Amino acid sequence: MNSLNNIESIYFLGAGGIGMSALVRYFLSKGKKVAGYDRTETKLTKKLNLEGADIHYEDNLNLIPKAFKNKEQTLVIFTPAVPDEHSELCFFRNNGFAMLKRAQVLGEITQTNRGICIAGTHGKTTISSMTAHLLKQSGIDCNAFLGGILKNYQSNLLLSDKSDLTVIEADEYDRSFHRLSPYMAAISSVSPDHLDIYGTEEAYRESFIHFTSLIRAKGVLLMKDDIDIQPKLQEGVKLYRYATTHSPSTDFYAENIRIANGEIHFDFVAPTETIRDVQLGVPTRINIENGVAAMALAWLNGVTADELRAGMKSFQGAERRFDFQLKTEKLVLIDDYAHHPEELTASINSIKELYPNRKLTVIFQPHLYSRTQDFFKDFAKSLSLSHEVILLDIYPAREIPIPGITSQLILDLVSCENKQLCSKTTLLHTLEKGQYEVVLMVGAGDIDTLVLPVKQLFALRC
């Protein structure tokens, strides 16, 4: 980015966020000095420090390195999750530092690169990761800023010295994706979410319509077939639709789907060819749909049939996206990021299809008081698809509690008999007393910090 040529230091407020951390790595790769703040130390922030960033975990002006207090040579990148009263944020604002949101930085990147931007209430991390892997392992290559750690590369940032294609997960929270200028865009879902930001379902849907208007002239929009918004496209933008199965309006779809012995195979149908016997590296039914979208984007950019077939088979998935932690005859443990009722339903149904004759226990941590208030009935309906439910307390993230909004609201409406509330501190003790076959740990908060202890507990039984 030309505007950053004179910038020597980049300071991140919220450096450990999955999207922010990709930018941390990006600027480290450009030889910039990088430092920042995050609320808590995590496995990811530890890695960033080892890679050259200087991240601390206390809101303290004295911990800002001296080199980052020169406003002429420092850019501050911040996330909306940082509260307005944060003293470091106030320091930079009050002293006239150049400040950008993460989305604005990504927007600048899509001005100069050919951005492939994947949006949607759910599915965008997997589709982005798949698309990036398909391009990366092909002769086309790409850069990528991802919302998950891609297990094939152990990173959420991919860089290329020969391609200007840049895969970006387009986040609708805070209307961030309106900062982008896509060369190609995909929309996987417009199911309402973030109503604390948008207010109404209609406003949420309108934000996606506006996103379609940002696609460059003569670009491409790929949209799931059952999405009924009317896109506003610039001149020459080509609209394609995709789905799991064929309908008169689909351009890309799967056929001849075979699910057996823990594997999923299908044939990928594109407008001018059919690619036979595609095998999913992460064999869940929802990944057929995600795979069709990713293969369509890669196919439109020139990835060959053999490269698509090899890439789909070798795709290992993103961390916390249907992520198998244990997989034995006695016990299966899966970690997943789902935090919307439709995502939760898709995860549970995928597991039940893979393990139809085994007991499924779901350990769920609701994310945000506002989302729980909006969707507690839908969460209960989704969780009722399982055999047993263990509900943790709501993870607040950026929010303060809403009176009367607790996990109990969900639990009261869950229909399966085996259900209970549990705190994070007592979860291991609770699990020690039970018998389990397939366990799904799911949520977008800090439930991931419990996955390893649970895995170690269960490994003793295998």
Account of the protein in words:
The chain is of the alpha/beta class and 462 residues long. The chain has three domains: 2-101, Rossmann fold; 113-314, Mur-like, catalytic domain (UDP-N-acetylmuramoyl-L-alanine:D-glutamate ligase), CATH 3.40.1190; 323-459, Mur ligase, C-terminal domain (Protein-Tyrosine Phosphatase, Chain A, Alpha-Beta Complex). The protein contains 14 helices and 21 strands. Strands 8-7-9-6-10-11-12 form a seven-stranded mixed β-sheet, with helices on both faces. It has a six-stranded mixed β-sheet with strand order 16-17-21-18-19-20, with helices on both faces. The radius of gyration is 22 Å and the shape is globular. The termini are far apart.
Give the count of structural domains: 3
Rg, nearest Å:
22 Å
Can you tell me the overall shape? Answer: globular
CATH topology description of the largest domain:
UDP-N-acetylmuramoyl-L-alanine:D-glutamate ligase
Sheet of most strands: 7 strands, mixed
Poorly predicted ranges (pLDDT <50, ≥5 residues)? none
Strand order of the largest sheet: 8-7-9-6-10-11-12
**Derived structural class:** alpha/beta
- The top level CATH class name of the largest domain: Alpha Beta
CATH-assigned homologous superfamily of the largest domain? Mur-like, catalytic domain
Say how many strands there are. Answer: 21
Mean pLDDT: 92
Please tally the helical runs, counting DSSP H or I stretches of 4 or more residues.
14
Distance between the termini: 52 Å
What fraction strand? 15-25%
CATH architecture of the largest domain: 3-Layer(aba) Sandwich
Task: Tell me roughly what share of residues is in helical segments.
Answer: 25-40%
